[in-house]
Write a structure and sequence with these properties.
Blueprint lengths: L11 E10 L2 E11 L4 E5 L6 H9 L6 E6 L2 E5 L13 E5 L10 H11 L4 H14 L15 H13 L5 E5 L7 H17 L4 E5 L2 H7 L2 E6 L2 E6 L1 H6 L4 H6 L3 E9 L2 E4 L5 E3 L8 E7 L3 E4 L6 E10 L4 E7 L2 E10 L8 E6 L5 E2 L2 H13 L1
Parallel strand pairs: 3-8, 3-9, 6-7, 7-8
Antiparallel strand pairs: 1-2, 1-4, 4-5, 9-10, 11-12, 11-14, 12-13, 14-20, 15-19, 16-17, 16-19, 17-18
Helix pairs in contact: 2-3, 2-4, 3-4
The structure holds adenosine-5'-triphosphate.
Adenosine-5'-triphosphate (ATP) binds next to β2 and α1.
Keywords: ATP-binding, Cell membrane, Ion transport, Iron, Iron transport, Membrane, Nucleotide-binding, Transport
Protein name: Iron(III) transport system ATP-binding protein
GO molecular function: ATP binding
Length: 371
């Protein structure tokens, strides 16, 4: 079989990318390809390898195996040793800590990449002002970064990253130092800026709502592998594995078993559904919050006890446990406030349950075990 090759016409791509530190394998075979003008989010728990992957694309690390290409040019190849240094990859980078120089003005910070490229003073000034205008900070060119708020400082960092009109911009958790409200505002602003400027971007985050808001494609990573790479809507509709569903907090995961015509919650007499489901006698399912409704306890509903409840903006989100099944917590959204200890009735719309194909799940587990 031929080795996989980098698809032409991609703005950035990786094939069979591996990175080890001594015996520790951090990335275990990463493949992706991103079109020009699109944003890819790398999403996953701490330590799964997001920053390592970004650093390989940036040229701050060289791969142990596999290749990276930017605009159809191979910039790193573990097999041949080919390696283009970061400053020649045509990149802009934005980091979590802004990395602004405190002794330079805002304008001085933004124009620095142009100075490094030997751009003349008049053109430097014009391009710096244009970049600052794009992030809404042209009035701040003569200030010091320390006179600006965290959100403004991050905008300066973005202006500096775009001033040289890079073909690719890399973001490493750029909003994680901001407080929650500012972060929520900045996500929208950043999404608009990326789209207005037509940037191609890779965006590292461990925040699923940031990734799903900003990105055209999301790579959910786990233990050095991409577990699923898909547009946000597909991820939400069709998470490939229970782990992806769990990480994206799409609802409650439950183990169920077939007895006769019905699927029971594992180890109980409680019937979830009589739908055909999938082959086999055991399954793992995702029960999305949206498919559970709460009402008064009645014989045609599942009896449940409210464990706790929290107002969420559009209703009260309650964690409940089914009577006779204390180990499983379901989540239900209710207009009325539900009190801890209260007994309620639940209806579950089984047509919205997501069934996981055991063989797909197993193959990922096997891949993780064998690398
Ligand atoms: N220089 C190094 N030497 C050895 N191991 C390293 C080195 N740098 C990173 N690692 C390990 O590689 C793994 C992946 O790290 P990486 O920073 O890519 O994860 P991440 O997904 O970005 O995590 P976080 O969200 O916490 O930043 C971690 O287990 C980390 O400890």
């Amino acid at each position: 079989m031929n080795a996989p090759s980098i698809r032409s016409s991609s703005a950035v791509a990786a094939v069979g990318l591996e990175l080890s530190y001594g015996a520790a394998q951090i990335l275990k075979g990463i493949d992706f390809s991103l079109e020009k003008g699109k944003t890819l989010a790398l999403l996953g728990p701490s330590g799964c390898g997001k920053t390592t992957l970004l650093r390989l694309v940036a040229g701050l690390l060289a791969p142990t195996r596999g290749a990276v290409s930017i605009a159809d040019t191979v910039v790193a190849d573990g097999a041949t040793g080919a390696f283009v240094p970061p400053e020649r990859r045509g990149l802009g980078m934005v980091f979590q800590d802004y990395a602004l120089w405190p002794h330079l003005t805002v304008g001085g910070n933004v124009s620095f990449p142009l100075e490094m490229r030997g751009v003349g003073k008049a053109e430097r000034q014009a391009r710096t002002m244009r970049a600052l205008e794009r992030v809404g900070l042209s009035a701040y060119a003569d200030r010091r970064p320390s006179d600006l708020s965290g959100g403004q400082q991050q905008r300066v960092a973005i202006a500096r990253a775009i001033v040289a009109e890079p073909q690719l911009i890399l973001f490493d958790e750029p909003l994680s130092n901001l407080d929650r409200e500012l972060r929520e505002n900045m996500v929208g602003e950043l999404a608009e800026l990326i789209s207005t400027l037509g940037l191609t971007a890779i965006y590292v985050t461990h925040d699923h709502s940031e990734a799903l808001t900003l990105a055209d494609e999301v790579a959910v990573m786990r233990s050095g592998l991409i577990e699923q790479l898909a547009p946000p809507d597909d991820l939400i509709e069709r998470p490939a594995t229970p782990e992806v569903a769990d990480f994206l907090r799409l609802g409650c995961l439950a183990d169920i078993e077939r007895r006769g015509p019905a699927w029971h919650f594992k180890g109980s007499e409680i019937v979830l559904t009589e739908a055909a489901g999938i082959a086999g006698d055991g399954a793992r399912v995702l029960i999305p919050v949206a498919c559970i409704s709460a009402g008064e306890a009645s014989p045609d509903r599942l009896a449940a006890t409210v464990l706790r409840s929290q107002f969420r903006g559009d209703g009260h989100l309650a964690s409940v446990s089914l009577s006779g099944l204390p180990g499983l917590e379901l989540q239900v959204l209710s207009r009325a406030k539900l009190r801890a200890g209260e007994t309620i009735g639940l209806s579950i719309d089984a047509t919205q349950i997501r069934w996981f194909q055991q063989e797909i799940h197993q193959s990922i587990e096997e891949k993780l075990e064998h690398v």
